[in-house]
Fold this protein.
Amino acid sequence: MPSMKDLANAVRFLSADMVQRANSGHPGAPLGMADIVTVLWTKFLKFNPAQPKWPNRDRFVLSGGHASAMLYSLLYLSGYADITIEDIKNFRQIDSKTAGHPEYGVLAGIEATTGPLGQGLAMGIGMAISEKMAKARLGKDLIDHKIYITCGDGDLMEGISEEAISFAGHLKLNNLIVLWDNNGITIDGKTGLATSTNQLARFEANGWQVLTTDGHDANALENILMEAQKSEKPVLIACKTTIGYGAPTKAGTPKVHGSPLGEEELNGLRKALNWDSQPFEIPTDILSAWRQAGTRGKALCDEWQQKAASNPFYAKMQKMLSGKLPDNFDADFQKYKDSLLVEKPSIASRKSSQNTLEKAVALIPNLIGGSADLTASNLTNTSNSKVITSDDFSGNYIEYGIREHAMGAIMNGIALHGFFKPYGGTFFVFADYLKPAMRLSALMNLPVTYVLTHDSIGVGEDGPTHQPIEQLAMLRTIPNLCTIRPADALECAEAWQIALHNNCPTALILSRQNLPFERTSANENLTAKGAYVISNAKSNRMATLIATGSEVSLAIEAQKQLWERGVDCAVVSLPSWDLFEKQSDEYRQSVLGNAPRVSLEAATPFGWERYASLNLGISHFGASGPAQKVYEKAGLTVQNVVQAVSDAISG
């Protein structure tokens, strides 16, 4: 009968062999954490490789994604069908399933794309929040599981970790257990080079239960994990380990962190741990024991499925997990859009967003909102919003506090957990804080909606620190992120309709200042085309003005003056570059036309050369003052636009 150390060594050597064969990777963490994850996966983790999407499975998040070889080893050893020994051998190779850092959707057992340190920790906390919310709606007979996260010193040094762990402690997430690989080593050397933080005291101060153990003692690990199951708080288990455990000359040093061991060191490791098998060979009895451990959750899964079928909330759960909108959503939403044509509200697009959310939240039971302490400014709440608390997770709104970094990652975790569609708000200029999470949303195709208000120099008196200039260009460079800057209340409603249907993340860029209502028809979602002619030329188009958001009304005012001068100009609203680029060449040409084009946007003109030869924007930071005066100071006036179009024609 193989011992726990034998099982752990299987993880160690598969991981070390992977890195050695690829001549690239991180062997130190897998060697050091192998005992921890072996006890967790064989004794505690509730999962079923035969049904990897079992809704009531525990979630395992490898926050330090550089230890990916360890996760691939665990998936292979425990019997996941979609990973083979050939996949293990192809670690870090082109088109391999076993990428350098785990990629969600590539292999069934990968619960999140991790890599940027701290993001996995915060995403796991999002999963824990989602589990609590799902349990509150569906009952513990359907949903009752834990979130396990492994993290390292690097995860805990990143600033996002403080935001995330303080929020987890505040919500008393007793379904959350974090296993800290406490080895005291980072790439540059001992952690003492850069930090003196008492992590145990830090977590305790944030409302966590803190436990400590020897990370290489299987019995001690089992006992401490049993204790953690009973906690009424989130739990940190500080597991004292040696990075590169067993490596004869590199163990306990930075040398084993991010480079292959080398043949000589790897042979020494085999001798030190009494491992006689050749690379990628697992002794039959050890592999059999691992596969048996992988079937441990089958009985639990089968029992759950038998009971779930007759559960009164089963159908509700299935609808939540499907990710689909209610059948009547688009029909009911169309009525709302039709009403806007009658009312023609001239309001800020942040207010248009709130009005739209009032309808959407009422129609979509699993839509979960929130804001980073800017609810009153982002207008992300509705009359149907109820804030979740540590005592009551039945609500649908999350007060994240001033934690943009964590909010983005937590929303990713909520989306990954599978039960809810999250959206969250902050000022657009703070998209810089959200960027790492937004990028991961896009990588994972997660339907997360970012509500980014106060979108331009129209912020006014708050001045240049709060006036986004370069952020639109930044978001437009992120692949698979749908960025939309609506021009009026109807475009805003259409943008929300797109976001709620999207299987990718969406960024809604919304104004503080009021915007005139410009649309004349709601028969088709024109925003979904990315761009369209919002105000056509009278007969023969002599020029085209292209604008987004608040500048569309400015372009239409300029169009009127150009008509008076005999310049037959058309105005194009281009709320989304991403969506416009997906249209046919014929459609894009019909919208942009052949006449001289001038773009207009209260942001950097960077990138606009793809659509226009003359681009009016802002290549400097803004100023503090009333919004209209800031626009004038920046030269974004009707008179200047008219002159620019005239120059484009004559030039």
Q: What stands out?
A: The mean pLDDT is 98. The longest strand covers residues 176-182.
